[in-house]
Automatic annotation (TrEMBL):
Transmembrane stretches, start-end: 12-33, 39-60, 72-97, 103-124, 131-151, 207-225, 257-275, 282-300, 306-330, 342-362, 420-438, 450-469, 475-496, 503-523
Keywords attached to this entry: Membrane, Transmembrane, Transmembrane helix
UniProt lineage: Archaea, Methanobacteriati, Methanobacteriota, Stenosarchaea group, Halobacteria
Protein name as annotated: Glycosyltransferase family 39 protein
């Protein structure tokens, strides 16, 4: 028999074929673990295989119609919101009493997150109150982020110190000319917003930042709810909101508040507007919102702009699939998705691409335009570094490889997997959600846009770094990637809850509820202010003595300009402390010190702080790669140097006058 299209072959199901293909792909990728020890190469095939197996099991196991999914008793469901609010109050109290977010704080936060997700998954329909659940999620987001900001005297993160200087320059010049030398001159919305908030509220820049972008970040999770609610019932829209709000990289940009943070907010608004025009009979107002959000992203952040263009490309490809219909995907099941003609997005894609190229061509960056510099760096990477399994050296935030010659301890081997566990759990349910939506009677432009966007982003986050290509700054992509992953993940959990036998479904959902919140809380992105694993991850926040030392170094040296400093006068200390001294302008020519194994530095100007001997800080090894080291005070500030400043925690050493 001859078929004119695959859609006429009724027994053929795309979701089944995709699940079988995914399982086979996982089996083929499994041997790569013997070629490299890269974490995601070791874990993603297992996650993919497990997700495909669960989906196939949900398709072919026989579920007794008399069996109902077990839910929480009404009394328990009614009591849990109060327990959650008490837990959140305890988190605030712990931070105030202890002066920092400690491991006890993060352990309790994981328990509170589990209680919230447990309510969503196991409350019966009668006791499910979406508004109350959303209130708990947003309260958790506020408490988790603002306790970190409260306990940190300065800022959390590295880049924020540079952006504070840009905002200060705008306020001083009363115009954008203060940052005309920098790439943010072409995307200044973040800096203008913070500067305007400082003037409007009559507060310092730090307070203005927290009262503007800082307040918006936790609330942005509601955009995920609004987006998901266009696709699935309200229970799963609330779940997607929780999955997103609890994610580590989302929490990171709620504490390290930089243009990436504001770009993420506009990206979520743009995603909502995009899905909205695909799901309703939209008006010019709806499409205008989509256009406005996309332009706001372009004027806020370059990396966010590129990610937005990837999303638009995914939406355009989804449009092509449903217009051409090569796999019969235009025949929808009206009980799942309402049939609607694909939205024509070619004009939007062309407009945003053209505007991006125009803005980037005018944006200054390292003596050229931003566009020319980025293309030059990418070409250089392809020529010099690209290659299969040529894993690029991890940044300091990835943990480094301390003591490569020594046999790693058990904790050294476990910590990287704990860091990635939350992402892997979310990735697993995302795979299930993707398999669900590729069924030809459930597929439509909106969910295919999410599927393709997640796939493309995963290529940039996990795929290209396997070939040594990290030009696209993959760590910045995770928070954006979590938006489609949270929506598809909620669809995946909905599928498992409704299709697996109750016993197996309860097992899967309980495991997810117990592991996901705690794993995300323990991930380094969630606790950069005070890492849970302090000997594996650097602390990207500073106490009052460290801030005072940086300021005092600037006062002692007169904060000379970089061109006034001879090479032998360069200041050396650890990473990330060197970024604080450099980016605050205290001593612009500051870099990391080289510490020979068992020996001392030979630099003339050095800064030692006690954290260098106790927690994770980075120094370059013999090959120039960042490595965790814990030198003693004598290795950084040698006896033949003179001490010109110390506050008991930080010491500034210079050549001794006696030695000269």
């Amino acid at each position: 028999m001859k078929f004119s299209s695959l859609s006429e072959l009724r027994p053929l199901r795309l979701d089944t074929l995709a699940a079988i293909g995914g399982f086979v792909l996982a089996a083929l990728l499994f041997p790569l673990r013997f070629l490299t020890s890269q974490l995601y190469i070791n874990t993603v095939p297992l996650v993919l295989g497990t997700a495909c197996a669960l989906y196939l099991l949900s398709l072919y196991q026989q579920r007794d119609n008399t069996q109902t999914f077990p839910t929480l008793p009404s009394a328990v469901t009614m009591a849990l919101p109060s327990v959650v609010l008490v837990g959140l109050a305890a988190l605030v109290t712990l931070t105030v009493v202890q002066g920092a977010r400690t491991p006890i704080f993060f352990g309790l936060a994981g328990v509170v997150g589990t209680l919230v997700i447990g309510q969503i998954l196991f409350a019966n329909d009668r006791d499910l109150h979406p508004g109350l659940l959303l209130f708990q999620i947003i309260c958790f987001a506020f408490v988790f982020r603002f306790t970190a900001l409260y306990a940190t005297p300065g800022y959390v993160g590295i880049d924020i110190w540079t952006h504070q200087g840009f905002v200060d320059a705008i306020l001083s010049e009363q115009s954008l000319s203060g940052i005309s030398h920098d790439k943010h001159y072409g995307s200044p919305f973040y800096h203008l917003l913070v500067a305007a908030s400082s003037l409007l509220y009559d507060v310092p820049i730090r307070a203005a930042l927290y009262l503007s972008v800082g307040l918006v970040m936790p609330l942005a999770a509601l955009l995920v709810y609004s987006t998901t609610n266009l696709l699935v019932p309200v229970r799963w829209a609330v779940l997607a909101t929780a999955l997103y709000a609890f994610s580590s990289h989302v929490a990171r940009w709620g504490m390290h508040i930089i243009p990436t943070s504001l770009g993420l907010v506009f990206f979520l608004g743009m995603l909502y507007a995009l899905i909205r025009v695909m799901r309703i009979e939209y008006t010019i107002r709806d499409f205008s919102l989509l256009l406005l959000m996309s332009v706001a992203v372009i004027l806020t952040h370059q990396v966010s702009t590129f990610i937005m263009l990837v999303l638009l490309l995914a939406a355009f490809l989804a449009q092509i699939v449903f217009v051409i219909g090569p796999l019969g995907l235009t025949r929808l099941d009206a009980s799942v998705f309402r049939t609607k003609k694909p939205v024509n997005l070619i004009g939007l894609v062309v407009f945003n691409t053209g505007l991006t190229i125009f803005v980037w061509s005018l944006t200054p960056y390292r003596r050229e335009s931003f566009l020319a510099t980025v293309l030059s760096y990418f070409a250089q990477t392809l020529e010099e570094s690209a290659g299969f399994l040529n894993i690029a050296s991890a940044s300091s935030s990835d943990g480094g490889e301390a003591g490569a010659e020594a046999a790693p301890s058990l904790i050294d081997q476990v910590v990287p997997y704990v860091d990635a566990l939350g992402f892997l759990f979310l990735l697993g349910v995302t795979f299930v959600g993707c398999l669900y939506v590729v069924h030809r009677r459930r597929a439509e432009q909106s969910v295919f846009t999410l599927l393709l966007a997640a796939a493309f982003m995963l290529v940039f986050v996990l795929g290209l770094p396997m070939f040594g290509i990290r030009n696209f700054i993959p760590t910045r992509w995770f928070a954006f990637l979590y938006a489609p992953m949270a929506i598809l993940g909620a669809i995946g959990l909905q599928t498992l809850r409704g299709s697996l036998t109750p016993a197996l479904a309860v097992t899967v959902l309980i495991l997810f509820s117990l592991v996901f919140p705690g794993a995300m809380v323990l991930a380094p992105g969630s606790n950069a202010d005070n890492p849970v694993f302090s000997d594996h991850h650097e602390r990207l926040a500073y106490d009052q003595t460290e801030l005072a030392a940086a300021q005092s170094i600037g006062e002692l040296t007169g904060s000379p300009g970089g061109d006034e400093i001879r090479p032998d006068q360069e200041l050396h200390t650890d990473h990330p402390y060197q970024t604080l001294i450099d980016r605050t302008g205290a001593y612009p020519s500051t870099t990391t010190a080289t510490v020979p194994e068992g020996g001392a530095t030979n630099h003339s100007y050095t800064v030692y702080r006690t954290e260098q001997s106790t927690d994770a800080v980075f120094f370059p090894d013999a090959d120039g790669n960042a490595e965790i080291m814990n030198p003693s005070r004598e290795q950084i500030c040698r006896p033949d140097q003179g001490t010109v400043y110390t506050n008991g925690d930080v010491t500034f050493c210079t050549p001794s006058p006696a030695g000269n």
